[in-house]
Amino acid sequence: MFEVAEVGQKLDRDTYDQLVPQLRERLLDVQFRLKSADFSVVIVIGGVEGAGKGETVNLLMEWLDTRGVAVHALAPQGHRTQEHPGLYRFWRELPPKGKIAIFFGSWYTRPIVDYVFRRSDELRFDRELSRIVDFELMLSNEGTLLLKFRLHISKKQQRHRLKKLKSSSRTAWRVTRNDWKFHAMYDHFRPVCSRALERTSTGHALWNIIEAADRRFRHATTAQRIVSAIEERLNRKPALPQPAAALPVPPRVNVIHSLDLRRKPDEQKYSDKLDKHQASLGHLARQLGGANRAVVVVFEGPDAAGKGGCIRRIVQALDARFYRVLPIAAPTDEERARPYLWRFWRHLPGRGHVAIYDRSWYGRVLVERIEELCTPNDWQRAYAEINSFEEQLVDSGIVLVKFWLAISPEEQLRRFQEREATGYKRYKLTGEDLRNREKWPAYEAAACEMFANTSTETAPWTLVEAEDKHYARVKVLKTLVDRVKSALNCDPKCHLKRRPK
Amino acid sequence: MFEVAEVGQKLDRDTYDQLVPQLRERLLDVQFRLKSADFSVVIVIGGVEGAGKGETVNLLMEWLDTRGVAVHALAPQGHRTQEHPGLYRFWRELPPKGKIAIFFGSWYTRPIVDYVFRRSDELRFDRELSRIVDFELMLSNEGTLLLKFRLHISKKQQRHRLKKLKSSSRTAWRVTRNDWKFHAMYDHFRPVCSRALERTSTGHALWNIIEAADRRFRHATTAQRIVSAIEERLNRKPALPQPAAALPVPPRVNVIHSLDLRRKPDEQKYSDKLDKHQASLGHLARQLGGANRAVVVVFEGPDAAGKGGCIRRIVQALDARFYRVLPIAAPTDEERARPYLWRFWRHLPGRGHVAIYDRSWYGRVLVERIEELCTPNDWQRAYAEINSFEEQLVDSGIVLVKFWLAISPEEQLRRFQEREATGYKRYKLTGEDLRNREKWPAYEAAACEMFANTSTETAPWTLVEAEDKHYARVKVLKTLVDRVKSALNCDPKCHLKRRPK
User: Fold this and answer.
1) Which is the most buried residue in A93, A170, A461, B491, by most CB within 10 A?
2) B107 in contact with A at a CB cutoff of 8 Å?
3) Which residues of B are less than 8 Å from A325 in CB distance?
4) Separation between Cα atoms, residue B310 and residue B30, nearest integer Å
5) Which chain B residues touch A61 with a CB distance below 8 Å?
6) Is the CB of B320 less than 8 angstroms away from the CB of A32?
7) Per the CB < 8 Å rule, is B321 touching A73?
8) Are A125 and A111 in contact (CB under 8 A)?
């Protein structure tokens, strides 16, 4: 793959000097237009040591208006210090609409280095590349313009370059022992990088391989490609709105209908059972930190299904210092300016902590789908995006437990009326609630589709028959206890290999 | 101070059982009303080990709606791992309007522990307490309701409590070696804590000292005080709007007028000088990380004073991985929901990094004052708030350099017209620009007042004669180089003792 960048392309000084003023003006121009556009730009600069990555980024920063661009140099993290999934740090730094982020050292670094140094095997390397493809596809679908550059020099050029830097007292500090170590490994890196690039050079996120030995050629080519990619995107006509999809209709027999919603516990044993499970949960939760684990609990279900009550019973068992309840309401403007999942990534729990999401990222395929708050394409691709997100959580050691609390529409109405009667619950039945009830079948159909698409081996849904609140609470707590217990007894990575029993 | 909480206050079970349902209902009620109020609530729970802090917080979380409250347990940080000023972590977690945050382990912990274990002296302890007073006053002025609780038990009760916990297998894990170590130090802690509470029990942030030996008394009293404080605040009548202050008029002779704005450099040496200073800056910047230092540069001055050009010359000397230019525009809604300085705290540079603020927190006493975007009280108190903020930056090892670029109104008009002529700069002289020019004397007067109030020993302003752009750039770079150089040659704390020459 790299041969294309070993053909000796150069740019003479005169041509370069003529090009530069135009290039700079066009760069500033597209950056100015970008400010009010509804997409962001992510630029990835990669390449071997000595290929001039730093120089190129510095040059871009000199040519651009620094106020609209941020550079992120995220050094690869040791596995030990890693508290969150590998992509977490990159998610956190995604730029809002109208801005540019340059990633210097990107999501490619660790998978490649790990594989070359045999800290991962081929299966893992492949999986990590697939994950990157998913991530970049999601970015692209969410409106991010992704520009990836690989600055390439040959092994001979690399040696030459490192020696030259070393020879001058002004630049000698830039050559570290690591650089020589990587130089010695050049031939090992090359095929691995090539494989990574081939696998991830997709339609929405092509790699630009830049022949980097000649400084002027490298700079002009990189800047030119950035300008034309942003220009092209700015000039793109907005897509015609898709016709709204008809509301989904639930099949007559479905997974929710097949539940016996009225299941009841043995009332006499209710409080014993609750106590027992709470005690186990409290005990297990204290072991999370030491085991390098965290827990994410997701609650979904119709209004008044009893999510709040279940959450209350869970947190009673936990130490307030180590849990967080995250009610998911309308996104803030900072959240709205970034890809949809950003607002969930930013609140992921650290080691030893429990995060309870009261409604979640599943809003995308439920309320946002039914109320047409996003396009059909948006919610259709969300299934795969969510699966990839959840797989990353589980892979990083998070115990992920998802509950759907199921009640009938009649029970919901009864509970609405009860709330209205109790001043204390401060509730008024509004027109909105009633309208939502009309769409009950559509919500139910969307939920069934969601179970089918997102109840995965790594992150299954637990459907809870919730017309009897006591029954629901016991089932939720017992499930949670079982899941945490079995997670603490196994290696976080083992779910990848385990066969379902 | 603690004697008030050693009188044996108790609550019998019957009274408690009667109280609790009312208390819970009132708690939920105030929390519900808080949601749409324009203030946030910060609760600090402190006290010796074994006083029941954890139990109390867990209970509050059970009684409150967990969706509107977050608990932050921030363990004291070692000095070595500290990358930011001590209050940084607390600033980051400040709740938005309508929400409650409970701090468990607060900004009091480290100053007290450091002093008791002789890692700080009396001067430093006193200073840290003063800083806390400033911080809490600022919170209160910014609309945060601050409720501080100190749960108190006597040494004898503490021993009794630790032994009791130790004796049961269900609770023995809660007693650590550290607890016994602190128990042995009880008599050393007591006067130090007492001093801290006395110094910081101010009108806007009173301490509630709670006799904590009796569980029921402790819980009921804490909850009651929280309820009544929030209730009182919710019922408070909004203050009548203050009459707008007249626009300030600059004195005939002032510090800006006394500048010779037209100073010019020796043109022939301009580029040599620029090169020299940029080389020094680049060299010094590489040493920042190793010296545990960071740099914050602030640019203020009229529109078209040349801030962008100066920033460009600075970043040319830096490695793009280690600097960030922060243009200060309108706050986001997350920023607007928190105290004014929050949005500056959140972007503070880490070790080895340079942050350049293009306009800054000084907007409060300039544009927000003149355009009446805040009340007179808001900008008047901002001087002291800013000084405290900047002192914390400098104290934590940040080199803070503040530039005011001064031009005359005639020069500004000339530059506006020039911009309009150059398509490339994409500028149109708007009515707004001309209106702003009418207020020139007011802005100038506000700036002079700002210099008088915020050009401190630790963070002086540098006024730059900026009608000649070359002169301004050389002065900016030279000042920056000198400041960074002298900071690298001295201990970060020494500014506290150094006498001005």
Assistant:
1) A461
2) no
3) 66-67
4) 52
5) 315, 320
6) no
7) yes
8) yes
pLDDT digits (tens, 9 = 90+) for B57-81: 999 999 999 889 999 987 765 555 5
From chain B residues 232-271, the ones with a CB under 8 A of any chain A CB are none
Supply the pLDDT for residue B498: 43
What dihedral angle (degrees, nearest 10) is formed by the CA atoms of A105, A98, A328, A134? Answer: -40
Residues B375-429 pLDDT 10s? 888 899 999 899 999 999 998 999 999 999 999 999 999 998 888 777 555 666 7
Q: Is A62 within 8 Å of B316 when comparing Cβ atoms?
A: yes
Helix, strand, or coil here: B415? helix
Identify the closest residue of chain B to A174 by CA–CA distance.
Answer: B286
CB contact under 8 A, B332 and A327: no
Tell if the CB–CB gap between A62 and B102 is shorter than 8 Å.
Answer: no
Stated pTM of the model: 0.83
CA distance B498 to chain A (A): 34
Of A56, A46, A40, nearest in space to A100 by CA = A40
Kindly write down the DSSP assignment for every residue of A444-461, as one continuous string.
Answer: HHHHHHHHHHH--SSS-E
Backbone angles phi, psi at B91, to 5 degrees: -55, -45
Mean pLDDT of chain A: 89
Residue A61 CB neighbour total at 10 angstroms: 22
Interchain contact, B71 vs A286, CB within 8 Å: no
Provide the pLDDT for residue B28: 93
Domains of chain B plus CATH, in order, are 2-235 (3.40.50.300), 267-492 (3.40.50.300)
Adjacency order of strands within the sheet including B69-72:
B69-72, B100-104, B41-47, B145-152, B207-211
Phi, psi of B184 (to 5 degrees): -60, -30
Closest CA in chain A for residue B356 = A67
- Copy the structure tokens of residue B15: 């009274």
- Give A-chain residues touching B349 at CB under 8 angstroms: none
* Calpha distance B214→B223 (Å, rounded): 14
- Give the N- to C-terminal CA distance of chain A in Å, as an integer: 43
* Residue B13 burial (C-beta neighbours within 10 Å; 0-12, 13-18, 19+): exposed
Residues paired with residue B324 on neighbouring β-strands, in sequence order: B355
Question: Does the CA dihedral A449-A450-A456-A460 come out positive or negative?
Answer: negative
Q: What number of CA atoms fall less than 13 Å from residue A465's CA on the CB side?
A: 12
Which neighbouring-strand residues pair with A324? A355
pLDDT tens digits for A13-61? 999 999 999 999 999 999 999 999 999 999 999 998 889 999 999 999 9
What gap in Å lies between CA A278 and CA A472, rounded to an integer? 14
C-alpha distances in Å from residue B372, one per residue of B339, B358, B378, B447: 18, 21, 10, 15
B334 touches chain A (CB under 8 A): yes
